[in-house]
C-alpha cells in the first residue's frame, strides 16, 4: 500500500488490483463515463462506450491480465488505472464523487514511478475529450486527434504522449 497523502482527512491509498475488485472497478468506469464524461459526449456515444450490461467475468479477466492499480479512499475503491510494458495507459477512471481531489493525479504519478523504475522512455494513452486537460496537466501532449468506433458510435479522442527524462 502507498499512502499518497493527497487528502489530509481522507487519504488516498494505492494498491494492486485484486480479483475481488472487479465489480467496484466496473462501477467506477460506468459512473465516470456516465457521469463525468457525459458532458463531452452525447447519450448514444456514452451508451456505446459504457453499456449498462457488461460481463463481469470478462471485465475482471481483462483487469487481471494487465498491470492494474486501484485507488482507495476510506477503504473503498474510487479509481483505477493500468499500464502495459510499453508505458501505455489503457484506462484511467475516477468515480465522480471523488473527482478533482487528486485521485487520478496519484495514480498517474504511480505509473510514472513504475515506468521510470524500469527505465521506460515514455507514457502514452488515448485520452477522452474529458481527460485531455488532466493529461495535459501531467505533461502529456497531443500527438493526434482520432475518431474511434465503439459499438457503432464514433467518438473523438486524442493520442497523447509524455516523454520521460532519462538518466
Ligand atoms: C479524467 C479523470 C480520470 C480525472 O480524475 P480526477 O481524480 O478528477 O483528476 P485530479 O483531481 O487528479 O485532477 C488533477 C488536475 O487535472 C486537471 N483536470 C482534471 N479533471 C479536469 C477537467 N474535467 N477539466 C479540466 N481540468 C481537469 C486539473 O488541472 C486538476 O487539478 P485541479 O482540480 O487542482 O484543478 C476523471 O475526470 C474521469 O474519470 N473522467 C471520466 C472518464 C474519462 O474520460 N477517463 C479517461 C479515459 S482516457
Topology summary:
Blueprint: E1 2-3, E2 12-16, H1 22-34, H2 43-49, H3 56-65, E3 67-73, E4 76-83, E5 88-89, E6 92-94, H4 103-117, E7 122-128, H5 132-137, E8 141-150, E9 153-163
Parallel strand pairs: 5-7
Antiparallel strand pairs: 1-2, 2-3, 3-4, 4-6, 7-9, 8-9
CATH topology: Aminopeptidase
Cα(first) to Cα(last) distance is 27 Å
Counting H and I runs of at least 4 residues, what is the number of helices? 5
- Assembly form of the protein: single chain
Count of β-strands: 9
Gyration radius (Cα, Å) is 15 Å
CATH superfamily assignment? Gcn5-related N-acetyltransferase (GNAT)
Main sheet characteristics: 5 strands, antiparallel
Which residue ranges are poorly predicted, with pLDDT under 50 across at least 5 consecutive positions?
none
- Proportion of residues in extended strands: 25-35%
